[in-house]
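Annotated sample (chain length 435).
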Amino acid sequence: MDPAKASCPTVTQRDQWMVESQVYDLYHLFASIPPNAQSVMLELLRDRHMEFLTKGLTHLGSSFRVLDAIRPWLCYWIIHSIALLGESVDDEMETNAIDFLNRCQDPNGGYGGGPGQMPHLATTYAAVNALITLGSEKSLASINRGKLSNFLRRMKHPSGGFRMHDEGEIDVRACYTAISVASVLNILDDDLIQNVGDYIVSCQTYEGGIAGEPGSEAHGGYTYCGLATMILIDKVNRLDLPRLLEWVVFKQGKECGFQGRTNKLVDGCYSFWQGGVVALLQKLSSLIIKQMASPDYEEGLAVTPHDEACHSGQGDLNRSSSVDYHNIGYRFIKECGAQEPLFYSIGLQQYILLCSQEQEGGLRDKPGKRRDFYHTCYCLSGLSLCQYSWSKYPDSPPLPNAVLGPYSNLLKPTHPLFNVVIERYYEAHEFFTKS
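Output written by the structure step:
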């Protein structure tokens, strides 16, 4: 290497060194103080987070005007964060949220970013998850499933993917938001899943992760979306799961948080996007072992679909058109997986509590960044996955040594396929099974 070039680091290298230095300072401070002071530093500041979140539901400053097209996301991020903390909004706030989201619902199906805006798959996912998290019969009944089903079918593309909106982009994110909504609302069928598996398989890269579209770079958010979708349509055995696992575990950096892509900075939101990938793979541990043991895999050949039922009790849809799609997410959460986490769970909890948590409430990307509702939602979601990562079932209370800091830090468990608290998912599953 040219010595002149070696002494001139790239912008990314300088940013990485700065993050490492900031994280090191926090960890060094933590290691140098007495145990009672360490306990204080590791405490989840529930009351301050609740104050930050509830204020966001009642009033947002003028700086939020730039987010006018994603207002259902703000509802979801805040309401889901409150639910993870074991709290709920009051009756008036719930009614206001339902009424607002109902005004975002397009007459022809789906939800827009605000009243009168065009329906979009991303804001449809956010609105549906927010209404499920509110959990009342009024909120669940407000979703027009018939019109929403028509919207999803209109977004379906012959490639197997989905468009995000009319004439919009086609990517793995669109596949996930469409399939997730259809699954939880009990409107998923063979027509909606046709060729979806082919599209997502074409997005798995040489690294093992999944890109947003064929030919692009593997990315944590898209990998979560692709893997969750393949589970929900019962085609997860078509992915190269060992290579995917190898990719994701190496995205947990020296800071103990996750990065979203190779050679990128750590970011608190990937506590869920990448942590969620690992949580899903933990449930698929026997299928991963099976793929690795196959002669084709040992010879370095591509993994091919098989007819045996996969670990979660699901078979390959290529051989049957009578799969009970609505219950895939329900059965998946009930299955056992690997008995210990496939990533450094305690280390990730440490990163979230020491580096992402703001003392004034709310959570952030990394030291030096500002708190926001997006990172609050996904840092708390990742923290929840960490806390239950040693549990045989995700809704059974974890042992104290699985929870970093005081046991009062324990959050509600979230469903790793939908990212709604599990008890709200069960209620929605029952409601849409009967209706």
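Annotation: Confidence is low (pLDDT under 50) at residues 301-320.
Annotation: The radius of gyration is 21 Å.
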